[in-house]
Amino acid sequence: MRWVIAPDSFKGSLSAAKVAAALARGIARVEPSAELLLRPMADGGEGTLEALCAAGLGQWRHARVAGVDGTVRPVRWLGLEDGAAVVEVAEVVGLPDAGGTRPGQRSTVGVGALIRAVLDTGCRRILIGLGGSSTNDGGAGCLVALGARLLDSLGQEVAPVPEALVHLHRVELSGLDARLARVQWTVLCDVGNPLTGPEGATRVFGPQKGVASHELEAFDAALAHWARQAEQAFGQRCAHLPGSGAAGGLGFALRLLGGQVESGAAVVARLTGVEAAIAGADWVLTGEGRSDGQTLHGKAPARVATLAREAGVPVSLLSGGLDRQALSALLDQFDGCFSIQPGPATLEEALAHTEDNLSQTAAALAQVILANRSLRKP
C-alpha cells in the first residue's frame, strides 16, 4: 500500500517530523513493503519552520532579538530556495517563553526586530506564521520596532504594551522603515477572529495567555483605542477583518502593512507537496496532540482531510487525546479517529511514551486495514 503520513506536531512532546517517523515505523512493522510518503504538517503556528525544513525547502538563518521578557536571545527563521523568508512568531514571543511576565507588559517588539533582520538580508517576500503567541498588543510593538512612534497628548513616547495603549493619542509613521513598502507579505493564520469584540483577540485568546477575567474588558478597550489611532495613521480600516485578531492582534498590524492572510495549513500543504503525495495514495494518516472542536477550523489535520476527500482517499486521525464532545463532528471528516493512549496515564507518562504509542497505534490500524483489504480480494 501507498501511505501518506502528514501529521502536525504533538506540542510539548514531538515535532511533526518525529511524529511522522513514529507512525511510519508502526506501519512498516506490519507491512514491510509499504510505500511511505512522509509529509510533516503545520498550520502556521509552532512547528511551521521545522515542517518546512523537514521537507528540504530551505536553510536555517539566525538573528538575536528580544523576547517578551526583554531578554535578547537567538531565534531562527527559514530562508527558502526561492528567496522568500519564513518567520514564526512563536520563535520570538511564544507562550512557553512568557515566564513570569504580565500579559499587560508583553510586546511584539522582538517580532519587528526579526523582520528588520530579515530585510537586512535583502529579502522582500516574507511568510509569517502567527500561531502560539503570548502577546496581546495588537502588533503595536512590532510596528514600533519597524519605525513607528506612539505618542501621547503631550508628544511623549507611549510604550507599545497593552497597559499603556490607553494613553495613545497619535501614531507617527514618518520613521517607518521604507523597505516595508516593497515587501510581499503572506500571513499564515488558522483563525478568523477580528481584532476586538466578543470574538476578538482578547476575549477569545486572552485567558489562555493569562489575562484575568476582570481584565478582559480593559484589554479589549485598549486594543480598540489602538486600532482607531493606527487606522487613522495608515488611512485604512482592517480591525474588523478575519485574522486581525490572530497572535494577540499582530494580524491587524500586518494587514496595515499590506499583509495577505491565508490559511497556514493550506500554505504549508502546498509548499511541502502534501496534495501531490495524496494523489494515488491508498490511505492517509494525520494527527495532532489533542483533537477537539478547533481541529476542524483551519488546523493542519483538517486541511489534510480536505485534500484526501477531494482525492477520494481514506484519511484517519491519530491524536494524543480526543474531545468526546467533538468526536461526532470529527468522525464526519475522518475515516476513523483514534487516541494513541492505551489506557489511563498521567500527562508525564503520556508524553514520555508518545513515540511508542504512535507506532503501536499505527501498527494496529494498519493491521485492520490490511486484513480488510485481504478479505475483499476475490
TrEMBL record:
Stored Pfam families: Gly_kinase (PF02595)
Any GO MF annotation of the entry: glycerate kinase activity
Keywords: Kinase, Transferase
Coiled coil among keywords: no
GO biological process: organic acid phosphorylation
PANTHER family to which the protein is assigned, alphabetical: GLYCERATE KINASE
Membership in a protein family: Belongs to the glycerate kinase type-1 family.
Protein name as catalogued: Glycerate kinase
